[in-house]
Structures are given as structure tokens and as C-alpha cells.
């Protein structure tokens, strides 16, 4: 029995070290800890305990990720990144709804990259700017509005 407690304590310590560095989604933390857990039940019990103590929260993880990355990326990319870490679709939708307007964010990203150049008149330059914003995860409609100068702050 003492060996079980020691393993459980070691697993808990490893989880707390990971959580001390940054927020983790539950599925992400489970994936990282799975190789160290003796059983699936032990891992689930630990994750449930951490969530009950509010040390592990997918809501906080979503908020942290969106705060850190929404100034540079569009909703499509942010949603894909969150889903890749195992966050529930409802939390993703709720988190994205609380972020700043996507057109405004895309406009800021565009201004940082192309502000001194402005909107190009040739097709090649326009395609280059559109592709840049597409790679950042902004929607086609958002990109069209930014390149037309249709953001609400203008």
C-alpha cells in the first residue's frame, strides 16, 4: 500500500509541477501524465481531484490561450488549437464569443505587417496579403472587410 501512495504522490507532484508552469487542458495534462500512471483509474482520480480543488480548469486554460494568442491569430486557428488540446467545443465557442471582434484583430495584424505598404492594387500583392491573413486563421469575410477598409474603428 505504501508503494501505491508513493506512486500517487509522485504523480500528483508531477501534475502540480506542470500546472505551476502554465495552465493545461484536462486532456492535455492526462496525455502528459498517462505514461507515469500505473492505472487509468489512478489518473482519472488525480485529474478529478485537481479539478475539484480548482487547480485544473479547462475554462481557465481557454481564457489563458485566447488572451495569449488572439491578438495574432483568427478564430479558425484559435479554435483548431484549442480542439487539438482536447477542449470541448462548447468551451471553445464560449471563449471565442468573449474575445475581441475578429475584424478588429485582423486589421491590427494586417497593419503591423502591411500598414506602411497599404492595400495593393495588383492581384499578386492582394493575394499575398490575403494568404498571410488566411494562414493566421482569419475567415474570408473578415479578410475581405480588412482589405476593403471596412473595420468598425475606421
Give the integer mean of the pLDDT values: 90
In helices, the fraction of residues equals 55-70%
Give the biggest sheet. none
Name of the CATH first level of the largest domain: Mainly Alpha
* Succession of helices and strands: HHHHHHHHH
Describe the protein's architecture and organization.
This protein has three domains: 55 residues, Arc Repressor Mutant, subunit A (Orthogonal Bundle), CATH 1.10.10; 39 residues, no CATH class; 47 residues, Orthogonal Bundle (Arc Repressor Mutant, subunit A), CATH 1.10.10. 69% of the residues lie in helices and 0% in strands. It contains nine helices and no strands. The model has no long low-confidence stretch (mean pLDDT 90).
What key phrases describe this protein's structure?
Arc Repressor Mutant, subunit A; 0% strand; mainly alpha; 154 residues; 3 domains; 9 helices; single chain
List the helices and strands and how they pair.
Layout: H1 2-21, H2 26-33, H3 40-52, H4 58-69, H5 75-84, H6 89-97, H7 102-114, H8 123-135, H9 140-148
Helix pairs in contact: 4-6, 5-6, 7-9, 8-9
Amino acid at each position: 500500500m505504501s508503494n501505491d501512495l508513493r506512486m500517487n504522490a509522485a504523480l500528483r507532484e508531477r501534475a502540480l509541477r506542470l500546472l505551476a508552469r502554465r495552465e493545461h487542458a484536462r486532456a492535455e495534462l492526462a496525455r502528459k501524465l498517462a505514461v507515469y500512471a500505473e492505472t487509468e483509474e489512478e489518473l482519472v482520480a488525480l485529474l478529478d481531484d485537481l479539478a475539484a480543488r480548482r487547480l485544473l480548469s479547462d475554462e481557465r486554460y481557454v481564457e489563458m490561450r485566447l488572451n495569449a494568442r488572439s491578438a495574432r491569430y483568427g478564430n479558425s486557428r484559435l479554435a483548431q488549437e484549442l480542439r487539438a488540446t482536447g477542449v470541448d467545443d462548447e468551451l471553445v465557442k464560449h471563449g471565442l464569443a468573449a474575445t475581441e471582434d475578429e475584424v478588429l484583430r485582423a486589421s491590427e495584424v494586417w497593419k503591423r505587417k502591411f500598414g506602411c505598404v497599404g492595400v495593393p492594387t495588383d492581384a499578386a500583392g492582394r493575394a499575398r496579403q490575403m494568404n498571410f491573413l488566411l494562414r493566421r486563421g482569419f475567415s474570408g469575410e473578415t479578410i475581405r472587410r480588412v482589405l476593403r477598409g471596412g473595420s468598425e474603428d475606421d
